[in-house]
């Protein structure tokens, strides 16, 4: 079992509207401030969705490049771009995210019902995303929304080889309406299947909404890592909206320290994930 905890912050996402969640960081300046605050607390990775001038989700390549550059200049965080975008984004735009040259990018392992929508990830698209990241030296985080996605990942790696850097890291996204529940039993089922993946595979877990705390505790107890942020919940406790991403990262850090697995530094996270040293 690892002795430290990799903490990823997902500060914005593509679902919440700024008008409904005023504390949501949607401008580049807000995102940079958030990144600095969360890095100071113990986050080592930032999972990034961006917004346009109208505060709506966008995959504009110029904005993505500007965001990657600003985050690298202002922090040591590992910059992980979402290749999922919003559920309505076309595949070509999602693949073009890699042109922004992030350290990492998400790679979702299959289609899943997503509330009232469908998050479409065809096998051919998954293969294309995986192989393009191999070619460009971008490290994937394989997003797992349901148990069958782990079998898809096993198939992907057996047919198309290990990711850039050689290390396999997955994130169990739990509690999405339409995906697997955010329960200890579901997490245990996933960790049992992880044993079929290459030796040394690591995992983090994300609890959506009210599953945030149960998933954090279950992941830590099973030797896993954590992802938290306003992409995943905008409620801190019953009747208490989240005031900032700092609040969520601070809670994750506190739980990690109670588990005697303090936060991992960005440098250690880079070594774990097979990333090049940040220059």
TrEMBL record:
Keyword Cell division among UniProt keywords: no
| Example of a GO MF term | metal ion binding
Q: One Pfam family for this entry, by name?
A: BKACE
Superkingdom, according to UniProt?
A: Bacteria
Swiss-Prot/TrEMBL keywords = Metal-binding, Transferase, Zinc
- Tagged with keyword Magnesium: no
Q: Which cofactor(s) does the record list?
A: Zn(2+)
- What PANTHER family has UniProt attached to this entry? 3-KETO-5-AMINOHEXANOATE CLEAVAGE ENZYME, 3-KETO-5-AMINOHEXANOATE CLEAVAGE ENZYME-RELATED
Q: What is this protein called?
A: Uncharacterized conserved protein, DUF849 family
Origin organism of this chain? Asanoa ishikariensis
